[in-house]
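User: What would this chain look like folded?
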Amino acid sequence: MPHKNKNNSRRQNQDIILAFTNQSTGSTTELKNLMAFFDELPFGVFILQKGVFVYANPAFIKIFGCKNESDLLNNPIHDFIHPDDREQLKYTGWNQDASRQKLFRIYSANGQISWVQMAIKSLPCGNNDLSLGYLADLTQTKLRCDYLEQSLDKYQLLFDDVEDVLAEVDLWGNITFVNNSIVKIWGASQEETIGMNYKRYVDKKNERIVRKAYQQIYKSQNPGKITYEIKRIDGRKRFVEDSV
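Assistant: Here's the prediction, encoded as structure tokens.
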């Protein structure tokens, strides 16, 4: 874990940022206003000099679980990054003139692992190699997405074992989900069918039947059945019944 460097103070780090501000705007007032603005933001904001923290706002400090700013300042950012993610971040090039957005893991002060997203861009500051970035804690979002993905995989296996066609469509009639049984009815695979609009496999007459029936079911919020004719991929026609 990172260690404090007590030889440097926040004042010295602010002098570095001040040098950038003076070079860019010529105003020390703007530096104070900028720092005050950063301190009020709900997401993490930080400034690096050659990959080392020289500023971190309160939200950033909270994400890392630190008690105060001194736990972060003058420490390299890569010391906080999970070892398996350091290579993909290529932290040796923080001063490159390019924006970055990454999802990766960090170690907080108590050793816990969090998922965060970061964007960073180098600042025009002579030889100081400063980089300004923001960081958002996405740990809970990542956990929910992982759980949802695992659940969807389980349901997909369950749905694929059902002989009847199971499908989901959005309000515009685009197919957003379908099980493997669609091959028997439509003659196309799941991959070919998802994203397709229902108008692709019905004629004008049946398109009106389907649209009117679905609109009535949607407005009434009551289940219903719809019988209509479709045209398969191979050109053959057949009647189907939707239970909605």
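Helices lie at 10-24, 28-40, 58-63, 83-89, 139-160, 182-186, 190-193, 204-220. If you want, I can go into more detail on any region.
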